[in-house]
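Researcher: Let's do a round of design. I'm pasting the structure tokens now; please hold your answer until I've finished.
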């Protein structure tokens, strides 16, 4: 299993948040038992965080990847520079992953663990119900499972201020 690396701006980062951050986040949520119940299986929790990060990496976000004078090319899309905060009164810190992005990652990880025991598997393999390679190749496809399933509403709400297209509109009262 890959080691979880959540260093913001790192060329080797593979997660938007750490396992401890996820556990702390879920301490305040009644519905988080599916994640916290796995405390004796941190590898499964980390696998869910890695898969959730890969899901969130597929989106287009405002701003540009931050690379503050280090010359290091960051692996993940966050942190970013040029992203205005929710109040529109300034910019987000371009050296850290915003808390809402981390929380969206945690929500997706929880959703993956709750929705399907094989959810931490790659999307490409989830389309198969059965795959047998011993002897002759035998494959059986699942019925109408999309390769890319939608994300939970809680994660989309957290992500919406940062996305470049169409998941939300911000209304301002005149």
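Researcher: That's everything. Go ahead.
Model: Designed sequence:
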């Amino acid at each position: 299993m890959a080691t979880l690396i959540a260093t913001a701006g790192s060329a080797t980062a593979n997660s938007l948040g750490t396992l401890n951050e996820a556990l702390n986040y879920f301490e305040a949520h009644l519905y988080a038992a599916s994640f916290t119940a796995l405390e004796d299986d941190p590898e499964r929790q980390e696998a869910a965080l890695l898969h959730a990060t890969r899901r969130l990496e597929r989106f287009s976000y405002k701003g540009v990847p931050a690379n503050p004078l280090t010359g290091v090319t960051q692996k993940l899309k966050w942190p970013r520079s040029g992203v205005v905060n929710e109040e529109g009164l300034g910019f987000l810190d371009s050296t850290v992953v915003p808390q809402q992005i981390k929380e969206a990652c945690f929500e997706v990880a929880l959703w993956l663990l709750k929705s399907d025991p094989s959810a931490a598997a790659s999307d490409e393999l989830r389309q198969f119900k059965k795959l047998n390679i011993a002897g002759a190749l035998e494959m059986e496809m699942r019925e109408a499972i999309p390769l890319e399933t939608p994300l939970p509403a809680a994660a989309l709400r957290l992500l919406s201020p940062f996305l470049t297209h169409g998941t939300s509109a911000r209304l301002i009262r005149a």
